[in-house]
From TrEMBL:
<protein>
    <submittedName>
        <fullName>Uncharacterized protein LOC109464694 isoform X1</fullName>
    </submittedName>
</protein>
<feature type="binding site">
    <location>
        <position position="114"/>
    </location>
    <ligand>
        <name>glutathione</name>
    </ligand>
</feature>
<feature type="binding site">
    <location>
        <begin position="148"/>
        <end position="151"/>
    </location>
    <ligand>
        <name>glutathione</name>
    </ligand>
</feature>
<dbReference type="InterPro" id="IPR047047">
    <property type="entry name" value="GST_Omega-like_C"/>
</dbReference>
<dbReference type="GO" id="GO:0004364">
    <property type="term" value="F:glutathione transferase activity"/>
</dbReference>
<feature type="binding site">
    <location>
        <begin position="166"/>
        <end position="167"/>
    </location>
    <ligand>
        <name>glutathione</name>
    </ligand>
</feature>
<feature type="site" description="Lowers pKa of active site Cys">
    <location>
        <position position="275"/>
    </location>
</feature>
<dbReference type="InterPro" id="IPR036249">
    <property type="entry name" value="Thioredoxin-like_sf"/>
</dbReference>
<dbReference type="InterPro" id="IPR040079">
    <property type="entry name" value="Glutathione_S-Trfase"/>
</dbReference>
<dbReference type="InterPro" id="IPR010987">
    <property type="entry name" value="Glutathione-S-Trfase_C-like"/>
</dbReference>
<dbReference type="Pfam" id="PF13409">
    <property type="entry name" value="GST_N_2"/>
</dbReference>
<dbReference type="GO" id="GO:0005737">
    <property type="term" value="C:cytoplasm"/>
</dbReference>
<dbReference type="Pfam" id="PF13410">
    <property type="entry name" value="GST_C_2"/>
</dbReference>
<dbReference type="InterPro" id="IPR004045">
    <property type="entry name" value="Glutathione_S-Trfase_N"/>
</dbReference>
<feature type="active site" description="Proton donor/acceptor">
    <location>
        <position position="217"/>
    </location>
</feature>
<dbReference type="InterPro" id="IPR036282">
    <property type="entry name" value="Glutathione-S-Trfase_C_sf"/>
</dbReference>
<feature type="site" description="Lowers pKa of active site Cys">
    <location>
        <position position="318"/>
    </location>
</feature>
Length: 351
């Protein structure tokens, strides 16, 4: 009986069982997911995120060689991905919809990484090259490329190359370098990384990135009890810390929304539907934290943000793609969540 086998034998058995069923695709996914995870593993079974490889900057004056221009850059995203989601929110808040077009990849990540499809809602074929996989674009930019094929990624149609694949930098560029092109004056004047709040924004970003944004991945992809315990303990200690901050101020850096909030929001909005179950981040749910839950709804309800959130892409991507942690790729039903419930956090803003 399966239950009596040693762990490594059980894994083989699962693979055979899946092969005997009509959905042969499961075996392919199992292999992919394992390879994917191993490429991110440290020596103690801990998840180690790789640095992004393309780090050019688009500037308003073009001094970097990449001048901010209308319809010069193309943004590639997954609606499932929290890092890519940041870029869609800032693009929206800054009114850059007509300036920076984007393409959404398939929510299912297979053995060759992200692929394009026009057969699923909100996804489309690659408009620039008709590529099948995002990796093809990375090789177009650099045939010797050896890094990961990640989203978000910004393609420069003029120089025919990748500008950047680092979300934290893309959102800074969208915030400040495209101000000549924003749809409205309010959007041009909106500064999500103002000089006087930078030190505070940088400070919170630092620990929120390690403990929360990446903390959920470190918990979910841990391959040893020790690595999981460490990551998940740190994750919830930092969520408690954020809860405390948000009991005093509406946003992380005070009364004003900043890039730090966008960066945190994209993790929080995925937390209860995916990270609690799929990544075993189940000490508490976001809805158990009054301030974090109210804050998540507050950011969600900002004009334009809700339309960047796609629960179908989010829930299906993680659970169907990571078959080494969810071998049958069954997508859980997910909690009832109403992000539109009143949050009353506007009352915290000082007059
Ligand atoms: N540091 C990058 C991380 C981006 C990232 O890891 N994206 C994931 C999707 S959530 C990805 O594309 N993974 C594909 C892979 O690692 O092969 C950023 O913030 O932009």
């Amino acid at each position: 009986m399966l239950i009596r086998l040693k762990p490594e034998r059980q894994v083989r058995q699962i693979s055979v069982l899946l092969l005997n069923q009509p959905g042969i695709i499961q075996r392919r996914n199992l292999k992919m997911s394992d390879k994917f995870l191993k490429s991110y593993m440290g020596s103690k079974g801990e998840f180690v995120r790789k640095d992004s490889a393309f780090r050019n900057w688009i500037t308003a004056d073009g001094s970097s060689g990449f001048k901010a221009e209308r319809d010069r850059y193309h943004l590639y995203v997954s609606l499932a991905c929290p890092w890519a989601h940041r870029t869609l929110i800032v693009r929206k808040l800054k009114g850059l919809e007509d300036v920076i077009p984007y393409t959404v990849v398939d929510w299912l990540m297979g053995e060759k990484g992200w692929n394009f499809t026009d057969k699923k809602p909100k996804c489309s074929a690659d408009p620039l090259f008709g590529a099948q996989y995002i990796r093809e674009l990375y090789f177009k930019a650099n045939p010797e490329y050896e890094g990961r094929f990640t989203v978000p990624m910004v393609w420069d149609k003029k120089n025919n190359t990748i500008v950047t694949n680092e979300s934290s930098e893309i959102i800074q560029m969208f915030n400040s370098e495209f101000n000549d092109f924003c749809a409205t004056v309010e959007q041009k004047e909106l500064d999500l990384y103002p000089e006087h709040l930078r030190a505070r924004v940088d400070e919170v970003n630092e620990w929120i990135y390690h403990d929360i944004n990446n903390g959920v991945y470190k918990s979910g992809f841990a391959r040893s009890q020790e690595a999981y315990d460490k990551a998940v303990t740190q994750l919830f200690a930092s969520l408690d810390r954020v809860e405390e901050i948000l009991s005093k101020t509406r946003y992380l850096a005070g009364d004003q929304l900043t890039l730090a909030d966008i960066r945190l929001f994209t993790t929080l909005v995925r937390f209860d539907p995916v990270y609690v179950g799929h990544f075993k981040c189940n000490k508490k749910r976001i809805m158990d934290y009054p301030n974090l839950w109210g804050y998540t709804r507050d950011v969600y309800q900002l004009p334009g943000v809700a339309e960047t959130v796609d629960r179908e892409h989010i829930e299906k991507h993680y659970q169907a793609s990571h078959t080494s942690i969810n071998p049958y790729a069954i997508v859980a039903i997910g909690p009832d969540l109403d992000f539109n419930l009143p949050h009353n956090r506007d009352k915290m803003t000082k007059a």
